[in-house]
Specification:
The complex is a heterodimer of chains A (294) and B (136). By secondary structure, chain A is α/β, with parallel strands linked by helices. Chain A contains 6 helices and 6 strands. In chain A, α1 packs antiparallel against α6 (218-293) and α5 packs across α6 (218-293). The longest helix of chain A has 76 residues, at 218-293. Chain B has 2 helices and 10 strands. Chain B is globular and about 50 Å long. Classes of the chains: A alpha/beta (294), B alpha+beta (136). Chain A binds chain B through residues 41-42, 44-45, 48-49, 51-52, 55-56, 139-140, 143-144, 210-216, 220-221, 224-225, 228, 232, 235, and chain B through 8, 10-15, 28-30, 40-45, 68, 70, 72, 77, 79, 81, 112, 115-116.
Chain lengths: 294, 136
């Protein structure tokens, strides 16, 4: 039977924990708003890039870029985008469960985020590189990741590259999602922002023969444009992953705070019961002692 | 009423310019070009430098970074990593950025860092060029 002092001590410690989780919840909420905002401001850029690609792509007939080469996928590479820190609920767990499903022998991982890298080395899978990304992720970090993936693909070490990340559906729902990255079989719209609409490009399709000049030529424009659009895509996905992370953490911390409040309530009830029974016992002792004396 | 072009300049962080203009002069990878309405459809790379926009007898100057330009009949779309209007350029800050970038270039850098520094140097130079030309 714990004494009243023990219970009081436990209540105090739970209260402290609740304060911390509450603070973390607020921080995550603020960061989440910022991350969503960051994903949204990139939208006009993505829209314009989509339009440029969709207008240019059908006219490129004479030239095939090496990044567009489709091979039978023997070896795959997966860019695994996880978080650096824990305390975000089942986010990383769900992501790793997706990663486990991939064919072990033929898959190379490129990890962005510490948790993913730890998972890959713990399960003895092949890790090609580990990247970190800041909050909010910068374009340079996205470039490093996308460059690494393109190198693997061009050197023939990977015949296809996918990205596995946590898609932001809503504040309460985040889903692990795999999207194809390379080869660029058809030029797809860059997924963008919170809840990317999966709509096809408006004008893609038949090759067009009307005059469209490329300066200096198709090859050099495409060689610059393709890697850039891939990098931009990685950047958008990083932003999305960050938004998921913060909202998952916010929800996890909210649950923790709620649980702590419930615990405090239960402990206080127990404490009061114990205090009352102690008083009753003492009263009984006093009265029996008095009766014995008189 | 002269014919006009629709000019759009977009960076990853904002839409800088979106208006109907009469002429756009910009620096492409194979040289400076002036684009008037009904220009031939064209796609090229943009080199860091200045863009001169003429609208209603008024010249607007912008400093831009590297990027892409697409011209279709009546529309010019510019996708770039930086774009600042001349009047918003902070000359002192640009000058300082230039010195910082030049100092860093003197050190040994990894490819990735070097690319970054080169980008910021070209941004700074473009801004200075536009600002100084306007001052004359």
């Amino acid at each position: 039977m714990p004494s009243t002092r023990d219970i009081r001590r436990r209540i105090r410690s739970v209260k402290n924990t609740a304060q911390i989780t509450k603070a973390m919840q607020m921080v995550a909420a603020a960061k989440m708003r910022k991350a969503q905002q960051a994903a949204l401001v990139g939208r006009p850029y993505a829209d314009l890039m989509n339009r440029i690609l969709s207008e240019a792509a059908p006219r490129i007939v004479a030239f095939k870029h090496p990044l567009m080469e489709v091979r039978t996928p023997k070896n795959r590479a997966v860019i695994l985008i996880s978080t650096d820190r824990g305390l975000c609920g089942a986010l990383n767990g769900n992501l790793m469960r997706e990663a486990v499903k991939l064919n072990n022998g033929a898959t190379t991982f490129i990890a962005a985020g510490k948790k993913g890298a730890q998972f890959v080395s713990r399960t003895k899978r092949r890790l090609a590189a580990e990247f970190t990304y800041a909050d909010p992720p910068t374009f340079a970090e996205a470039r490093a990741i996308s460059k690494m993936a393109q190198d693997l693909f061009l050197k023939g070490e990977a015949d296809a590259v996918d990205i596995l990340f946590t898609n932001f559906v809503s504040t309460l729902v985040q889903q692990p999602k795999t999207v194809p990255f390379l080869p660029v079989a058809e030029i797809k719209p860059v997924t963008v922002g919170v809840n990317p609409p999966d709509q096809p490009l408006p004008a893609a399709g038949q090759p067009r023969t009307d005059v469209f000049e490329f300066e200096p030529d198709e090859k050099s424009v495409l060689s610059a444009l393709l890697p850039h659009s891939l990098t931009f895509r990685v950047h958008q996905i990083l932003l999305e992953a960050r938004a998921s992370e913060h909202s998952a953490r916010m929800v996890a911390m909210k649950n923790a705070s709620d649980n702590a409040q419930q615990l405090i309530k239960d402990l206080t009830l127990e404490f009061n019961k114990l205090r009352q029974s102690n008083i009753t016992r003492e009263l009984l002792e006093i009265t029996t002692a008095q009766m014995a004396v008189s | 009423m002269p014919e006009t072009l629709k000019l759009e300049i977009v960076t990853p962080s904002a839409k800088i310019f979106d208006d109907d203009v009469e002429m756009v002069t910009l620096t492409g990878i194979s040289g400076e070009m002036g684009i008037l309405p009904r220009h031939m459809p064209l796609m090229t790379q943009l080199v860091a430098g200045e863009i001169n926009v003429r609208k209603a007898n008024d010249n607007i100057f912008l400093a831009v970074g590297d990027g892409f330009v697409q011209v279709t009949g009546d529309r010019v779309s510019i996708l770039t990593d930086m774009a600042i209007r001349a009047e918003n350029i902070d000359e002192a800050a640009a000058e300082e950025a230039r010195h910082r970038a030049e100092a860093r270039l003197a050190q040994k850098l990894s490819d990735e860092d070097a690319a970054l520094v080169h980008a910021s140097l070209s941004h700074a130079l473009a801004q200075l060029k536009v600002k100084r030309r306007k001052g004359k």
